[in-house]
Amino acid sequence: FSFRLFPLREHGMNWRARPLTCQEIQAFRKSKEVMDRFVRAYKLMLGFYGINLVNEETGELERAENWRERFENLNRFSHNNLRITRILKCLGEMGYEDYQVHLVKFFLTETLVEETLPNVKRSALDYFLFTVRNKEKRRELVHYAWQHFKPQSSFVWGPRDKLQKYR
């Protein structure tokens, strides 16, 4: 069998890697060793993307020192967006829903506010955002995206009347 660093309950691009079962997910989540390795793998990938995990408890993130070089890589190679989507989905499977929220907000900020990752914007809005399992947090992120999207009138990820009323 071929295994992935961020396994899911669905098939990915590697046809030899089999999807996880619910029982395997539960076993992983109960193992401190497996979960510690998972967080180490997450930090490794974040580093590759130019991001640091500031707080393991909350999932808070910041740009790494080498962010300019790494963001250039993210902008140039769109296959990274598939990997990020996979990581986000896996974070949800492994019970790291707060990590999902911070990673999506990081990408929304970098694409919509800072405008450092223009080639990641579509994926952040079309895919990353909708991996967030917590409905209320996902709604907050959609509102955040709407607030910073330019032009706001072209935002199509929610009804404008509800977005304007959302608090």
Automatic annotation (TrEMBL):
This is OGFR factor. One of its GO terms (molecular function) is opioid growth factor receptor activity. Residues 5-164 form the Opioid growth factor receptor (OGFr) conserved domain. It holds the Pfam family OGFr_N. InterPro entries: OGF_rcpt (IPR006757), OGFr (IPR039574). GO terms for cellular component: membrane. The lineage of its organism: Eukaryota, Metazoa, Chordata, Craniata, Vertebrata. It comes from Certhia familiaris (Eurasian treecreeper). Belongs to the opioid growth factor receptor family. It comes from the Eukaryota.
